[in-house]
Amino acid sequence: MGYRILIAAAVGAHFAFLAFGIFGGFLAWRWPKLLWLQVLSATWLLVIVVAGLSCPLTWLEDRGREGAGLPALNGGFLDTHVAGVFYPHGYEWVARIVVAVVILTSWAGLVVRSRSRSRSRSELGDRVG
Question: Which residues cross the membrane (predicted)?
């Protein structure tokens, strides 16, 4: 039972980290201080995918699977839990492009919003002064 909880926690943490790494830039529109954490998360995702490294959460899930008497993952988290669900197998390159566009869009939107806010503050200061 405990190993199955470990597996579920690892998979849940993986999905949460993946979601934050991809969509966290939009949260930074509301809470700009989150941007640095999101940039680190997105960078980690990039390194894992480009370098083909194994994520520590995948290692943790595999230890849980081993303890529960289940086989280790065949491939990584993306191959097992994401491919075929969020995008068709064999279209990883399309998914990577879409993810990059989403992340860059969130960052570009943050820049636009920041400039708009600073311009509004500047205009307000001109009216008051």
Answer: 7-29, 35-60, 93-112
CA–CA gap between residue 129 and residue 118 (Å, rounded)? 16
In sequence order, the 6+-apart residues with CB closer than 8 A to the CB of 24 are: 34, 37, 38, 41, 42, 106
User: Which residue range is the domain that position 37 belongs to?
Assistant: 2-128
Question: Would you state the structure tokens that stand for residue 102, as one six-digit string?
Answer: 């989403």
For the entire predicted model, the pTM comes to 0.82
pLDDT at 115 over 80: yes
Structure tokens belonging to residue 7: 């597996």
Which residues lie closer than 8 Å to 9 by C-beta, 6 or more apart?
A: none
The pLDDT value recorded for residue 122 is: 64
